[in-house]
Every structure is written in structure tokens, then in C-alpha cells.
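Preliminary data (for renewal application), 2-acetamido-2-deoxy-beta-D-glucopyranose complex.
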Amino acid sequence: MRFKFFFSLWSVTSSWCIKKICNVRRGAISYDSSDQTALYIRMLGDVRVRSQVGFEPERRGSHPYLGVDFRTLHSRAESAGSIPARRIRRLFSFQRHLLSSRLLRGAPHLNPLHILDEDYCGQAKCMLEKVGSWNFDIFLFDRLTNGNSLVFLTFNLLNQYGLIELFQLDMVKLRRFLVLVQEDYHNQNPYHNAVHAADVTQAMHCYLREPKLAQSLTSFDILLGLLAAATHDLDHPGVNQPFLIKTNHYLAALYRNTSVLENHHWRSAVGLLRETELFSHLPVEDSLSIERQLGSLILATDISRQNEYLSRFRTHLDENDLCLGHASHRHFVLQMALKCADICNPCRPWELSKQWSEKVTEEFFHQGDIEKKHKLEISPLCDSEANTIASVQIGFMTYVVEPLFAEWARFSDTRLSQTMLGHLGLNKASWSALEPEASGSSEEGESEPGRATEEPSSRALSQGSQES
Ligand SMILES: *[C@@H]1O[C@H](CO)[C@@H](O)[C@H](O)[C@H]1NC(C)=O
Ligand SMILES: [Zn+2]
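Predicted structure:
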């Protein structure tokens, strides 16, 4: 049924899409869709695009939430006015691409500093001097850059590592790629938005500078690590995988209910790489390798596979057999670093950590409200009447964050690792103090990880899957 929809949509849309996308073979919309299809999926995913081409959400038939537009799920009143402009921009993504390359043809060569100076305010520039600090305030940086933290931070890091020069990245393509990545995050999501992506990228940078990694990673590894961090939640709808499955969302069908979101983030990233032709000057094997490894890194952020990665990590550490001269071992370490970066909120200083906790809970409760409204079973941790920010956080820290960071600290026994574990303990104590019933006595609760919560681990894990 659903595929029938795809094919009929395909024939309608193909009449207006430009030739390039029409090169995708008709049968490409399939489970193992890859490559070019990712471009198309990006557009399919946008309900507003569907309605532009004559497909109102109602006509899809497979979605019980007739008017639910995942892009505006979390929208607030004030964002309503900006939708038409965005809709037009996205609808004509490819035309826009053509137009911009036309406009830029013959434009004076842009150097990185020019791009920086153009938009920067002095304070943001100043902050970037401490971009490697664990206390980096990404919320402040986002305000100072007028909501462009992901673009500026990622651009700055790529430049700082010398990757732009080394890989001869075209400045115009790179800038376009980063702007599109940032735009494809949903600002309306309280948590899974471009600021989260910027925060994960900043954390990734901190880990890449840890001695064990800095000494062994190649420039290629660093490029992949930063790109994976920046794109790892691309186009996140603000609801979790179980929600997509139970509402028969087409992405769940497309990815066979397996790592649905992560597959979509990856495909979306590949779509943008191809659309902007960022790596088109590299040998085909290299750009394919980038796409493949990007996928393997992003898929590792699926928290439902947490135990698998954690036990592999533990076994390597027990046997002390990680050999970072091997590309496959370096890749595994990058996967673990990205996993840490993705769930490092509880390891940040309280003032930052607390804001993330509030945002992620807001997103969960919002999902719970939709589930309530549509008389669906309310997902674990999403019921605002049964959970508090504190109870959600304590469970998450105990069952997901602490075990991961304990192993990371074994692997990379540094001051940063100790700092992160220190904040984790303090933050957990702070939440316990705010939630006396969660641990009986907050003083006992904070020193005994096993006792500090009443959340069973499965609930904590499902929360994790939403945070990733
Ligand atoms: C995905 O899960 C739903 C609900 O359990 C099920 O109806 C559907 O057949 C599953 N799809 C695939 C491709 O496994
Ligand atoms: Zn994430």
C-alpha cells in the first residue's frame, strides 16, 4: 500500500523535478535505497513539499495523524509566519542550487577569513578561541551567531584542523553544505535541533584532541568525525522510532523498523553531500568511502544497540588489544567518541547540563501529549504526569551515561575524562536533591549509583534512543 503511494507520488513529482534527480531509476524507492535516492527522500520527508505537488498528507492514507506535519510538530506560534518563505526555499532546493551556482560563477574568490568576518560578531569570534574548552557555552555561542552556531563552529573546526586546505574543499560548496545541514535540522524541536548538533560537534572536537586520539587519528578520520557529529541527527522529526513505527510513518517502512532515524540522518547527510558536490573533486572511491563511514558512525548512535557497542569496547579494554594503527580500530574509537559526544549532556557543568535536561524532557512530554491526544499508548518517559525532569535524568545517567563514560575513562584516562565524571556525579546529586522520592534520601542516592533511581533500565534505554 505504502509503496503504491511512493510510486504514484514519484510519477507526479518527476514531472517537475529537474533532470538530475530524474536520473534516479524508478525502482530506487526501495528498502535498500541508497545514493541518489537520499536526495529524493529528503524531499519526500517534507510534508510541505508533498502538499505543493498536490499530495496533502490526508491522501497518503497510511498515516493516522491526518494533519501531522513532522516539521512543524513542535512549532510555536511565532514561527508560523516564516513558513511560506522556508517552504519555497526548500521546494526549489535544486533550482536554488542551480541559481546559486549561476550567481556565484565569476564571483570573487572567497577565503575563509572573508566568510568569517562577514557575519561574525567580535564576541563569537572571541569564544571560538576557547572552542576546545569543556565549559564552552554553546547556547551563548548560538545567540552571538544569530542562530548559526552549527555553521560557524563546524567551519571553524574544519579550518582549524587544516582540513579545508588538505582536502582542497571548495569554500562556496562547503559553506552551502553547512548552511543546508543547519537548515535541515528542525528549529522547532526543543532538543533535536541544530544547537544539539553543534554541541555534539564541539564535544567531538574535545575528544579528538585527547592524546590517544590526537596521536593516532588521520586527517581523514578527523574529517569524518566532525562531519558525522554535525549531521548525526539531521532532519530529526522530534519524535522517537517507536512513535514512527506505531503511526506507520513512511520512514519506518523504508528502513524496516530498524535504526529508522539514524538511517534517515545518514541518508539525509549523503543527500546533501551529493547535492552540494562537496567531495566531487575526490576520486570516486574516496567519496564513497566517506559516505559509507559516515553511515557507520551515525548508525552507532542508535541507543538500542548501546549494549552491543559497550561490550565490544569493554572487551577491547579488558584485553588491551586496541591497536590504533589499524584503520578498523580507529573507526571503532571514532564510533565510541561520537556516542559519548551524543550523550555527554549530563557530563557538562550544571548550568549547561540543566538546560539540556529541560529541553529533552520538553520534547518527550510533547510526544506524550500527541500520543495522549490520539489515544495511543504513551511512550516511556513521555508522560508528563508520571515523570519529572529529575526522574528522567537520574535513570538516564545511571543506566546509560555512567556505564559508557566509565569505559571511556578507562580508555582515555585524562583530566577531561575525570572532569566529565565529576560533573556527572554532581549533576546526578543535584537532580536527586530535587527529587527526594526518587532515591529515598538524596544523600544516599548520590553516592550509590545503583540505588539512586527507580527507573528500570529498559525505560532508561528508550529514553536514550530519543536523545541520540
Ligand atoms: C514494522 O512494525 C510494525 C508494527 O509492529 C509492523 O506492522 C510492520 O509490519 C513492521 N514493518 C516491517 C517492514 O517489518
Ligand atoms: Zn543526537
